[in-house]
Design a protein that fits this description.
single chain; about 110 residues; alpha+beta; Glutaredoxin; 2 helices; about 20% helix; about 20% strand; globular; binds FE2/S2 (inorganic) cluster
Length: about 110
């Protein structure tokens, strides 16, 4: 069995956040999250977690999550909470969710 270079004893994270980084060409029938700034938002969230010293949360780019019209699409597990985010938004409540599981009601993805 290999020794984990970060000293972890078992695989997994307390929370796992996927942010869609999919990009479609201009004039596509559906919008895409990268074109709305998802890849600028993602490092802001990662940096905020680093500044808080939180290493038990994984934040990563995903492919299309298929809720493109409600992007920037994001989902956090294990809660299975879907958010509609925006580039430049106040990420305080999202960081709170990642830290302690508190759902950010104002950022929930809502379908019509
Ligand atoms: S492009 Fe982001 S959910 Fe489809």
């Amino acid at each position: 069995m290999a020794v984990d270079p970060k000293g972890r004893k078992e695989p997994g994270y307390d929370r796992h956040m996927f942010i869609c980084g999919h990009e479609r060409p201009p004039n596509s029938a559906r919008p895409s999250c990268k074109n709305q700034g998802s890849l600028e938002l993602l490092p802001r969230i990662k940096q905020a977690l680093r500044e808080e010293g939180i290493s038990s949360v994984r934040v990563q780019k995903s492919g299309c999550l298929d809720f493109c019209e409600n992007g920037i699409s994001c989902v956090i597990y294990p809660e299975g909470t879907w958010y509609q985010l925006s580039n430049g938004m106040d990420i305080t409540s999202i960081i709170d969710h990642l830290k302690n599981g508190t759902i950010s009601q104002t950022n929930l993805m809502k379908l019509e």
